[in-house]
Automatic annotation (TrEMBL):
The keyword Kinase applies. Residues 1-104 form the Response regulatory domain. PANTHER family: HISTIDINE KINASE 1 (PTHR43711:SF1), TWO-COMPONENT HISTIDINE KINASE (PTHR43711). Its EC number is 2.7.13.3. Residues 428-624 form the Histidine kinase domain. This is histidine kinase. It is an enzyme of class 2 (transferase). The lineage of its organism: Archaea, Methanobacteriati, Methanobacteriota, Stenosarchaea group, Halobacteria. It comes from Haloarcula argentinensis. NCBIfam families: sensory_box (TIGR00229).
């Protein structure tokens, strides 16, 4: 009767009856109950004894003693035993209306307290995990500790973290803790739209949100995993995506021993927990990537044969490679206390300080100075420095390298010695060889004036050849030098001037300049060096093509350059590269140096030269890569 009347009083009440205390306790084990209403007089046990039995298992469950045999003693015993309320029966339905109201109030208060306790429990859980995340030093430690802390917190029984395999679309478990009993070995979880992807884990990965199953027993979406889950005491589950800045780092799955364990507030806190875990994973990944990049950079810098260094804006050493430390002979602790200038001899410190200031001010500088080791040894180096700024363009120091130039210095000294020897040789050739040659030429002219003989013509040819050899050797030994100032030069004018100097023996030879006066370009060249190039080309042509050779000088129309071609016998294709080698000649009167000098002059200007066949069947020399004057 009480059951029927209560059902009439409120549509929120679902009343289940039991005829005894023992039967009531059985009902509690079978289903979830929000409130117990008990009479005082019951078979075997009275209502107080039932209350005490309930409180042993359910210390906070609402329990109302509703009895017709009320007394102050019974009421006192009921309250002392932990009754939520005590209400005496009466006539009519008014007492049942009051009872229904008391039930609803008790249940509401119970649920409120329960929710608060649950949220506090989850907050404590989140706090414990946050502390673990702060202390964790690796990704595996983060995942392991998270699963361990969750599984040790009631009513949770099991937790695991997995990642989605992009190739198979399976969610592969990586770390787990709690009551597992090979659960993960018996199930397959995916992130696709198949049956294995319809659970909370697959949904959380696809939709990037917390997904729950509040009642594993009845939820149809969990059917394929239900039996294995229930066998291990799992009654509800939640899946939390571990996402940071739109990057999914994995998935956290939590299993509870209670149905409807993941209320709205608890889900919100689990969401915050997921954010914390994701941020920690992201931070450690970035840290590991930076550490790997730093290691790679250090290995790369340490493999350099050159010194590498970083200075702060005050000139103090902030970082260096192994080569720097090894050469300096200081420990890392000693280097940290050094300023860069102290690593140079006193006689060079002012120049080094100026170079540092120049780099800080202008952006870069280069200086040659002796690096001073801890033992006092000086090693010549070439140091470069570049200004170092932060992302906002603020000056933070200098970065640079130092290259050991001991070998270069030694080589420069050797070259200087060779240069001096060559200059001495040139002086000897000029004075000790040219003077006797002049005597021979003078005496030869006197003899030729008095006598006529074929032998004298041979002597004249030989002396002319000796004269040219002397001139070429003097150019190679003394006059060969870096290109001087570049001036605008007209190729046709330079060619005609050079032709006049070399064509006297060849009266029948002719030069044609195929250059339009109004379109001929001016090119930048060292005038003296260009003249020497043209003289040697023309002399080579006369020597090999004969005294009646025809020579044409022309300008390329499509690319800056010019050509010189003749109607002589030409150069075989297999010899066209060899002709520029020193000493190569096919003429008895040739020196074997002329075309080598031509190649040297062209290279010094940055020009390209090649020998090929002319349009007249002879030889053609093409010089390209010239810079024209607008």
């Amino acid at each position: 009767m009480a059951s029927e009347i209560l059902a009439q009083q409120s549509d929120q009440l679902n009343v289940v009856t039991a005829a005894s205390a023992a039967e009531g306790l059985d009902r509690l084990d079978e289903r979830s109950v929000d409130c117990i209403v008990s009479d005082y007089r019951l078979p075997e046990k009275d209502g107080i004894e039932l209350l005490k039995a309930v409180r042993e298992e359910y210390p906070d469950l609402p329990f109302i003693l509703f009895t017709g045999e009320g007394s102050e003693a019974v009421a006192s015993d009921a309250i002392a035993a932990g009754a939520t309320d005590y209400l005496r029966k009466g006539h009519g339905t008014e007492r049942y209306e009051l009872l229904a109201n008391r039930i609803e109030n008790a249940v509401e208060q119970y649920r409120t307290n329960q929710r608060a306790a649950e949220l506090e429990r989850v907050r404590a859980l989140v706090s414990n995990i946050d502390q673990a995340l702060i202390r964790a030093s690796s990704l595996s430690e983060i995942k392991t500790r998270v699963c361990e802390i969750i599984s040790d917190s009631e009513p949770y029984r099991f937790a695991w973290i997995g990642e989605r395999d992009s190739e198979t679309d399976r969610i592969e478990p990586q770390t787990w803790a709690g009551v597992e009993d090979a659960y993960l070995d018996t199930i397959v979880v995916t992130a696709d739209n198949s049956r294995t992807g319809q659970g909370p884990a697959g949904t959380a990965v696809r939709e990037r949100r917390i997904a729950t199953v509040q009642n594993i027993q009845d939820d149809p979406g969990f059917e394929i995993w239900r039996e294995e889950a229930l066998d291990r005491g799992y009654r509800s589950t939640a899946a939390v995506p571990l996402e940071y800045n739109n990057t999914l780092y994995g998935l956290l799955c939590v299993y509870s021993s209670r149905q409807f364990a993941f209320a709205e507030g608890e889900q919100a806190l689990l969401g915050e927990l997921g954010n914390s875990i994701s941020h920690a994973i992201h931070s450690l990944k970035i840290r590991d990537e930076l550490r790997a990049e730093r290691t790679f950079t250090d290995q790369a810098l340490d493999s350099l044969a050159d010194i590498f260094y970083v200075l702060d804006s005050e000139g103090n050493i902030q970082r260096c490679n192994e080569q720097f430390a090894r050469l300096a002979g200081y420990t890392d602790e000693q280097i940290a206390d050094l300023d860069a200038v102290s690593l140079f001899p006193e006689d060079e410190q002012d120049a080094v300080a100026e170079a540092i200031e120049e780099a800080l001010t202008t952006g870069q500088s280069t200086i040659e100075a002796d690096f001073l080791t801890a033992e006092g040894k000086r090693t010549p180096h070439e140091f470069t420095a570049d200004r170092l700024t932060d992302q906002d363009g603020n000056l933070i120091g200098l970065v640079g390298t130092g290259r050991d130039i001991s070998e270069r210095t030694r080589r420069e000294r050797e070259l200087q010695d060779q240069k001096e020897q060559l200059e001495q040789f040139a002086a000897t050739v000029s004075h000790d060889l040219r003077n006797p040659l002049n005597v021979i030429q003078g005496r030869l002219e006197l003899v030729q004036a008095e006598h006529s003989s074929d032998h004298l013509a041979v002597i004249e040819t030989a002396t002319d050849r000796m004269e040219r050899i002397v001139e070429d050797l003097l150019w190679l030994a003394r006059e060969q030098q870096e290109i001087g100032s570049l001036e605008p030069v007209a190729i046709d004018a330079a060619a005609e001037a050079a032709w006049k100097l070399v064509s006297d023996p060849a009266d029948e030879a002719e030069l044609y300049c195929d250059c339009e006066a109004d379109t001929r370009p001016l090119v930048k060249a060292d005038t003296d060096q260009l003249r020497h190039l043209l003289e040697n080309l023309f002399r080579n042509t006369i020597d090999h093509a004969g005294l009646d050779v025809t020579v044409v000088v022309g300008i390329f129309g499509d690319t800056p350059g010019f050509y010189i071609e003749d109607d002589g016998p030409g150069i075989p294709a297999e010899d066209r590269e060899k002709v520029f080698e020193a000493g190569y000649s096919t003429s008895e009167s040739g020196t074997g140096l002329g075309l080598n000098i031509v190649k040297r002059v062209a290279d010094a200007h940055g020009w390209d030269i090649r020998a090929t066949e002319s349009s007249m069947g002879g030889t053609r020399f093409e010089i390209t890569g010239l810079e024209t004057v607008e």
